[in-house]
Amino acid sequence: MESALWTRGAVMLFIEQEYAVRLSIRAVGDYLKRWGFTPKKPIKRAYEQRPESVKQWIDQEYPAIEKRAKAKGGEIHWGDETALVNTDVRGRSYAPKGQTPVTMAVRGTRQKLSMISTVTNQGKASWMIIDGAFNHEKLIEFFEVLVADGKRAGKKVFLIIDNLSVHHRKPVKAWLAEHQADIEVFYLPSYSPELNLDERLNADLKHVISTRVPVITKAKLHAAAKNHMAFIETHSERVKSYFQDLRVKYAA
Fold it and tell me: How far is it, in rounded angstroms, from Cα 26 to Cα 179?
């Protein structure tokens, strides 16, 4: 099969190839509905991902992190970085039948920001918006914020992040070695972004930013991102909802 998605057309071709039965697109849709199949947006998964590593992390490594955090009276944070641009338009828009909806695009004034954030299954969100590229210096700066917040709450930080090269830079390792009493960092399997629950926060923010009227200046992009992150920060139930997906139920 050459199709990357199991569409009705792909299922129709599969049935014809395997069973020499030709069905119409509508009939295939009726059968899929009868069998309990519904169309869903697929999860992106890298070809390089090793399923055995993912299973081991879910079955063994994460439970060990959870056990250690409970023993130390700590708090588990899921962290991630993302980029925000003012040219990203997502979602759908209504228009009269036969007419394609039009959105106003920003040309020649592309603005970009970076953000690092964490979420916990208790509904807490921490974040830092960065004007420019994300690097190890900004990562350490964010670590300092998390540690300061942890000390105020009387909880050690247990941070789960992606296995990116910037997370393994020598200055980062040196800083973490000096602050072992306050923070421990654990890494997700490579090429496994779907395991990172902070991706849900990123998607939330980007959806809101991209469905509003495009902003032209970086200052307005920063303000829009800051306003929504402040909203997320004060709505713990919204953050908790990131943990409800059955695929990540183990993390709750």
Answer: 61
Whole-number pLDDT of residue 36: 85
State the average pLDDT over residues 134-144.
Answer: 96
CA torsion sign, 24 to 29 to 31 to 32?
positive
As beta bridge partners, residue 52 has none
| pLDDT single digits (tens) 164-177 | 999 999 999 999 99
What is the pLDDT, as a whole number, of residue 48?
47
- 3-class secondary-structure state, position 75: strand
Tell me the backbone φ, ψ of residue 143, rounded to 5 degrees. Answer: -55, -40
Residues 183 and 147 sit within 8 Å (Cβ to Cβ) = yes
CA distances from 134 to 53, 83, 191 (A): 27, 9, 19
